[in-house]
Amino acid sequence: MLSPHPYRRAIPAGARIGFWRARDGWMLRRFDWPADVTPRGSILFQAGRGDVFEKYLETLAHWHDQGWSITAFDWRGQGGSGRLSGDPRVGHVEDFSLYIEDFEEFWRAWRAEAAGPTVAIGHSMGGHLVLRAITEGCIAPDVAVLVAPMLGLKSPVGAEVGEWAARRIGGRGDGARRAWRGNEIPATTETRQALLTHDDARYQDEIFWQTAQPDLRLGPPSWRWLIEAFASTRLLRTDSRLADVRVPVLMLVADYDKLVSARAALRVASRLPDVRVVRFGRECAHEILREVDAVRDRALGEIDAFLAARLGAGA
């Protein structure tokens, strides 16, 4: 078992939190943690919808301990990167292309200064945006890791009907209004924790950060975000350019994920020329890197082995 890390509820002394100005002047909150010695390379880690990088400090510390320089930023409209809705608890965006434009611009500036080989790692919505940006030629990492990637939304009526319903309901009135009241999905009897992780202590880490910095907390998505999520994932799943992706990809999939579609992720993986897929069973919920030790240790072991194999143990 990997040892618990002290940075779950504290910003590392060597890390910097600042802001990056996008092309339109929008300020996105960023996290930088340079390697203590000559770096093996540079990792850009991007979290999911409603997330903040503080949730992943334990995992970022694991990679930093191995000699990687780490960077992350909060997506526009969430965390410390402002809001795109009048309601500060609603996660809103008018078009997913805004995320991609930010990502491409940030990547270009970051890559110019990054040491060694570059790694793009994305969880959930972050995984979707990493793969979309690669497929569209916006970023070109040496390798990519997609963790429970949002390549299809989990919908009880299926993606096609779900998107139709979202457009029909959410297309009327204010698209920035919340799509549902709370939790991660509507009309569920399961707790939010049950949807995310089986590890109570790691779930409480997120609650700690929400309490310590309440302005970072986000609630449900807007109707427009939901419509855009259905559309963006559908278009990526059918993008012919997936077959031309030359970036080696490691994809971690939770087969019983109740937030994103594991089946959609596996279909996309089957179209990528250079991909390794690692699947997790009932022991794993959506947040693979914040799961119980047995799951998380396996996931980190797979990532470490993939980076060593593709970039060299001392890259």
TrEMBL record:
One protein family per Pfam: Hydrolase_4
Residue ranges of domain Serine aminopeptidase S33 in the record: 39-293
Listed InterPro entries: AB_hydrolase_fold, Hydrolase_4, MAG_DAG_Lipase
Protein name listed in UniProt: Lysophospholipase
